[in-house]
Amino acid sequence: MPATNSLHSTLLNFIRIMDFIHVPHNLYHIIVTIVNLGLQLLWYFLQIIVSAWYYILAVGNLFESYFISYGVLKKYKSLRIGKLRYLAVVIESEDAYQTSKVVKLLQWLDSIGVKNVCLYDMNGVLKKSKVAIFQEMKNAKSIEEVNDAVTHHVPDHMTLEFVSYVDGKEAVAKAANLIFVENSKRHNLGGELDCQILLESHLNQALQIVGCKGPEPDLLLVYGPVRSHLGFPAWRIRYTEIVHMGSLNFMRHGSLIKAIYNFTKVHQNYGT
Q: Within 13 A of 150's CA, how many CA atoms are on the CB side?
């Protein structure tokens, strides 16, 4: 019996010691759990704040758009539209299938006074809808029908250009092939093969020769889910102001006027 009692007492003491050792470990886990819970609550709180802020901005922009459309905000009535010589509109290819919305956008632009417009989407959907668009836009002409450069005068009709991602790829391929052929001719005539780095001026000249240079837009409006020009020919937007307008499904007349108004107020400094 004394030996049994001694063993029992030893086991109890060992259990107490182990419990004492585990106290700091358990306390550490409790603290970590509380900290993680606090960080999660803080993250959710910040998400709510940011979402609420964007919601307030969206509602504010919506009301502002309506006020602009109905002429409540007087400053937007005086558009110096002559400063916008050439406008490019980039539309996400899925939205580009909505021809009626594209036509409505063009009608808004025409009513504002924009005369030269380039329509672009990556997959060439707008080019396939060209006939339907021109049927609705009776006062519009294709850029191929215009002899003079569209940026040199103000036409009495709207001029439309249709561009896709393939056009940009083909333009670069034609320009590169032209540069290669010209370089090879000089080499065959006894000159040295030009191995210098291709400069922007060389590419611009080649694009001009193959007829793919195209007018440079003053303003580019992007209708799509992302803030990107979606492959619009980069050599044509060196000094272009780019504005993301959101989805074509939620386009608003007031937002369009605001984007153009803000562009006309921008002072651009061009380098030499």
A: 27
